[in-house]
């Protein structure tokens, strides 16, 4: 069984353990008229500030445990993001399901899980909870304006990493 096959077993946006987190995100975030890209950005940033990344491949990826601990490894946090993104987009009645895929990525011999998110222009963007696949300094180099910091442009396209990263 491939890593991607085992990951799909954890994709279930209807899990009861997600509800409290969805409610809190909804209370703390302005969601009126939000686009799918804006939802993905706000949700990723919410999880980056509210959850602790633990660099331990042995941690469970069960959503109940990740939400209870408010911590997880790259796989657990990537799965949490994907489940919450699917659940919130459904709750908000967005016309299409976001294309977010959890993938194992390797850079310089280091393996972590990332989310490959297809934005509204069709560009695959990389969301990395570990900061080991996408170097934050590389991400900062993408910013041309303050507006970019708050947009999907702040997240590196997967194709820009293809020489350094194996998915």
Distance between the termini: 16 Å
Tell me the structural class. alpha+beta
Radius of gyration, rounded? 15 Å
Q: How many DSSP helices?
A: 7
Order of helices and strands: HHHEHEHEEEHHE
Give the tally of β-strands: 6
Strand fraction band?
15-25%
Report the major sheet: 4 strands, antiparallel
Largest sheet: spatial strand order: 5-4-3-6
Helix content: 25-40%
Produce a short descriptive summary.
The protein is α+β, with helices and mostly antiparallel strands and 167 residues long. 39% of the residues lie in helices and 16% in strands. It contains 7 helices and 6 strands; from the N terminus they run αααβαβαβββααβ.
List the keywords.
167 residues, alpha+beta, 4-stranded antiparallel beta sheet, 39% helix, two-stranded parallel ribbon, 7 helices
Tell me about this structure:
The protein is an alpha+beta fold and 167 residues long. It contains seven helices and six strands. The chain has a four-stranded antiparallel beta sheet with strand order 5-4-3-6. Helix 3 (36-50) packs across helix 5 (74-91). The longest helix has 18 residues, at 74-91. It is globular. It starts with a helix and ends with a strand.
Q: Helix and strand layout, with pairings?
A:
Blueprint: H1 3-8, H2 19-28, H3 36-50, E1 52-53, H4 63-69, E2 71-72, H5 74-91, E3 100-107, E4 110-118, E5 124-127, H6 136-140, H7 146-149, E6 165-166
Parallel strand pairs: 1-2
Antiparallel strand pairs: 3-4, 3-6, 4-5
Helix pairs in contact: 3-5
